[in-house]
Design brief:
182 residues; alpha/beta; Aminopeptidase; five-stranded mixed sheet; 4 helices; 16% strand
C-alpha cells in the first residue's frame, strides 16, 4: 500500500488493485489528504521492514518538526539501549508525498532492516514496539505542554530521491555489485 498516497492516486478510481482501494479507505480515516478541513488524525506512524541493512530508521516528510522532535526523543533513548538508529528526511511536501503518514496532520515511518521478506523477528518487533511507546510518550507529553527535552543537534540524512541502478545485462540481471564503502 506504500506509495499509494499521492493526491493523484487517491483521486484515481480507475485503479482496481487492492492496495489502491485500501489506500483510499485509510486516507478517508486519517485525512482525507487535500481536504478542505484539517486532517482527522493528528499523527500517524507507519511501520515497514526492509531487506536493506539500515537498522531502525525514522523517516519523515517535509518540514514536520513534531515528527522530528518525537524521533529525536525516541532515538536518544533507543541508542542508550544499543539500538542503531537514523533519521531520514524526505524533502517532499506532504501533499506530494506517496506515503501513508502524509494523510495525517503529522507523522513518520519507522523502517527496520535488514529482515528477510516474510519473516517476523521477535527482537526486531520488540524494538519497534519500544520505539512506538517512546514516540507516543513524547506526543502525550507534548499535548500536555511539557515535552521531554531532545538533543540540541542530531544527524539527519536527506533522501535525494535519486536511485542508482545496479549494472545489469539486457535481461535485467545484475552484472556487478556496489563497493561496500559506497
Amino acid at each position: 500500500m506504500n506509495r499509494e498516497f499521492t493526491l493523484e492516486r487517491l483521486k484515481d478510481y480507475t485503479r482496481p488493485s487492492y492496495e489502491a482501494n485500501r489506500a483510499k479507505v485509510v486516507d478517508a480515516l486519517l485525512g482525507p489528504k487535500g481536504g478542505s478541513s484539517p486532517p482527522l488524525a493528528d499523527f500517524a506512524i507507519d511501520f515497514h521492514s526492509t531487506t536493506t541493512s539500515m537498522g531502525m530508521t525514522f523517516i519523515m516528510e517535509g518540514d514536520d518538526r513534531l515528527a522530528l522532535r518525537a524521533s529525536c526523543h525516541a532515538i536518544a533513548e533507543l541508542e542508550k539501549e544499543g539500538v542503531k538508529c537514523a533519521i531520514l528526511w524526505n524533502d517532499q511536501p506532504r501533499m506530494e508525498s506517496p506515503h501513508l503518514c502524509s494523510s495525517a496532520a503529522s507523522g513518520l515511518m519507522i523502517e527496520v532492516g535488514a529482515i528477510a521478506q516474510g519473516l517476523v523477528r521477535a527482537d526486531t518487533a520488540s524494538k519497534v514496539e519500544r520505539a512506538t511507546h517512546l514516540i507516543l510518550d513524547y506526543l502525550d507529553a507534548h499535548n500536555q505542554g511539557s515535552p521531554p527535552p531532545v538533543p540540541e543537534t542530531t544527524s539527519v540524512y536527506r533522501d535525494l530521491l535519486v536511485k542508482i541502478p545496479c549494472p545489469s545485462d539486457d535481461d535485467g540481471l545484475p552484472t556487478g555489485a556496489f563497493h561496500p564503502a559506497l
